[in-house]
Design brief:
The structure holds 2 protein chains of 2 kinds. Chain A is an alpha+beta fold. Chain A contains 3 helices and 12 strands, in the order αααββββββββββββ. Chain A has 2 domains: 146 residues, Thrombin, subunit H (Beta Barrel); 78 residues, Beta Barrel (Thrombin, subunit H). Chain A starts with 8 loop residues before the first helix and ends with a strand. Chain B is built from 6 helices and no strands. The two termini of chain B are 13 Å apart. The chains are: A alpha+beta, B mainly alpha.
């Protein structure tokens, strides 16, 4: 055995594990705010994450440019340069146009919000580093008036809620996460239930605790119920894909496909009362 | 100086993991570069380094994630410890062995995460966790492992092996 395992080290290790677990237990997603060290670290990293995300975007543009460059080299150098420049321009315009469409949709969403809710636009600058949490980092923080618990949406529907905030960034727990359950109801029949994330199939949701006699059909739209006051009522969540009976045989559950494409989240709105 | 360079390297990997790696999702999972760093450090330098690197890398990841402070620190530290225990028993030049260890260490790390997570109140779905995260991630790591281990081993031989 290496020297590391001297006498008494096992007891020390066990004590350390228990202490760390107690700390971890007290710092889950329910705590009121981040510690100063976490805030400092996140404030430091947010600009770097923004930069890395921007670099990823520009790499894609550069790839398009290079593709155009290769095609045109067969004709002549001057035409190639001109075409590459035009390609770059078209690409930039397309990007701007697509962004414009997304922002317009966001604006429509913003206007359709019920009275009493304000929205703060934000960009997604990072995603969680592990495969166990479903969360993203956005580029707005306490400086912009964000607080823990605020709802986050985009033009397609409900995205999640803010679980921690630093000065210039915030962590958004997506509704795909098992800890991000939301009170919902079926839009037409007003059948209530709770929507939560599932591991398999990935990127799907599950509506649970639906009464056995409730009218639940495929393709029905699921919206937020507004109970609990975190999310406004009527936000689009997803549509029912399939219906099964819960293991206890007393309730039904439905597999729900979310309207939001969580793999392509770029701009979001944070809702403030 | 080496600690400074290593810290910057960890930070770089952390940012890569949060920004660019989600584009390299395979089988529903993205590689955990930070775990790979811990495993390779423990494999090449042994238990004490494995624990130290696991502690530092896990703590940094915990601070950035803002959830359950200490969970990644604990899982990565224990993984570094377990991998470090076999350091003296393997041939580091045989590139197949570290890949098998990386596969097993990934399973161990993810198991520890589910186990400790369950203990401290994080919602855990054991059966689904194995099929949707643990096994796909272990296979993913085993596939990319050789491409990462070879340069890591060269850096170790050139800069690290005889510098302590």
């Amino acid at each position: 055995m290496p020297r590391f395992w001297g006498k008494g080290k096992w007891a020390l290790l066990l004590a350390a594990v228990i202490i760390v677990l107690l700390i971890a237990r007290g710092t889950g997603t329910e705590r009121a705010s981040l510690s100063p060290v976490e805030i400092l670290f996140r404030n430091m990293l947010a600009p770097l994450e923004s930069g890395a995300t921007a670099v990823l975007g520009s790499t894609r543009t550069l790839g398009d440019y290079l593709q155009g460059y290769r095609d045109l080299v067969q004709e002549n150098k001057e035409l190639k340069k001109e075409a590459a420049r035009l390609n770059e321009e078209v690409n930039a315009l397309t990007e701007a146009q697509l962004e414009n469409v997304r922002l317009r949709q966001l604006l429509n969403m913003q206007e359709s919000l019920k009275q009493g809710w304000q929205s703060i636009p934000a960009k997604v600058i990072g995603r969680d580093t592990s495969n166990w949490y479903h969360s993203v980092t956005i580029n707005r923080g306490t400086d912009d008036g964000l607080e823990k618990g605020m709802a986050v949406i985009n033009q397609d529907g409900l995205v999640g809620q803010v679980i921690s905030v630093s000065r210039n960034s915030a962590e958004v727990l997506l509704i795909l996460d098992k800890d991000g359950a939301v009170g919902c109801l079926v839009q037409l029949s007003r059948t209530p239930g709770v929507v939560e994330g599932v591991d398999r199939p990935r990127s799907f949701l599950r509506m649970i605790h639906v009464p056995q006699d409730a009218e639940l059909k495929e393709n029905q739209v699921v919206v937020t119920s507004g109970l609990g006051g975190v999310f406004p009522s009527g936000l689009r969540v997803g549509y029912v894909v399939s219906i099964t009976v819960e293991p206890n045989g007393l309730m039904k559950q439905a597999l729900v496909s979310p309207f939001v494409d969580f793999d392509r989240l770029e701009e979001v709105l944070v809702l403030k009362r | 100086m080496r600690i400074f360079i290593f810290s910057a390297f960890v930070l770089l990997n952390l940012i890569l993991q949060a920004t660019i790696l989600p584009a390299f999702t395979f089988g529903g999972v993205k590689p955990d570069l930070l775990l790979i760093i811990v495993v390779f450090a423990a494999l090449l330098k042994g238990t004490v380094t494995g624990v130290k690197v696991g502690f530092f890398v896990g703590l940094v990841q915990d601070i950035l994630s803002g959830k359950f402070i200490g969970l990644f620190m604990l899982t990565k530290m224990l993984t570094g410890l377990c991998v470090g225990l076999v350091e003296s028993k393997i041939f580091k030049e045989n590139y197949l062995v570290p890949i098998v260890i990386l596969f097993l260490a990934t399973i161990l790390h993810e198991f520890l995460f589910m186990f400790f997570g369950d203990l401290i109140g994080r919602t855990a779905y054991w059966a689904q966790g194995w099929t949707s995260v643990v096994l796909p991630l272990a296979i993913y790591h085993a596939c990319i492992g050789p491409f990462l281990y070879v340069p890591a081993y060269k850096v170790y031989v050139k800069w690290w092996r005889n510098k302590d």
